[in-house]
Amino acid sequence: MRVLLVEDDVQIAQGLAALLRTEGQVVELAATGAQAWAAWSTDRFDLTVLDLGLPDTDGMALLRRLRQRPPGAAGSPPDMPVLILSARDALQDRVSGLDQGADDYLVKPVEPEELLARMRVALRRGAGRVQPLLKHADLVLEPATRKLTQAGQSLILRGKEYALLHALMSARGKVLDRAQLEQALYGVDDSLESNALDVHLHHLRKKIGESLIKTVRGVGYFMPVTDAASESSA
Length: 234
Description:
With 234 residues, the protein is an alpha/beta fold. 41% of the residues lie in helices and 19% in strands.
């Protein structure tokens, strides 16, 4: 999942980013409203965590502007889930934030477990339903809880392994090139070793089976559509 974290306090931003990355999220940081708008306009995020007290604009105005974007515009859609995380704790601020289009409103400081849970809820609301299960062969992945089972047995994945599997299962039958997979695993500011993707693919294949992820040499990787997979997703 790609998350835009809009927060001008460096210490808070770095702490939250570290928390989300340990959960396997790809996190981009924006310290100003201008940076947030530029990120929304050029990249597609699954969710935004938005502070209100930004140095160049008020977060409420930024949220209103997002909700007014044309549906077909490039980048993040206008109905992208937005979770406000602010020090403003007055009832009027909380009500206003929700009325302006926020999916949730949290007051700083917040417990990490609650933030992660509220993010999951916001994603489910944004989809208009509980996130569907992703199924392939004997694999079943539940995005809302990050639970993975294979033939009914639970499997434990590391953060990058989960992000990689989620990307491949979401695009089942389609070849994803290295750039697309690396985008699913890393933010633009993350340092990336040249063989990092290969390492994560190797570990993931060892856990779920070599045959489930196919390589198209010089192109990329994919999970082929099989009869079993098609039946399980029907």
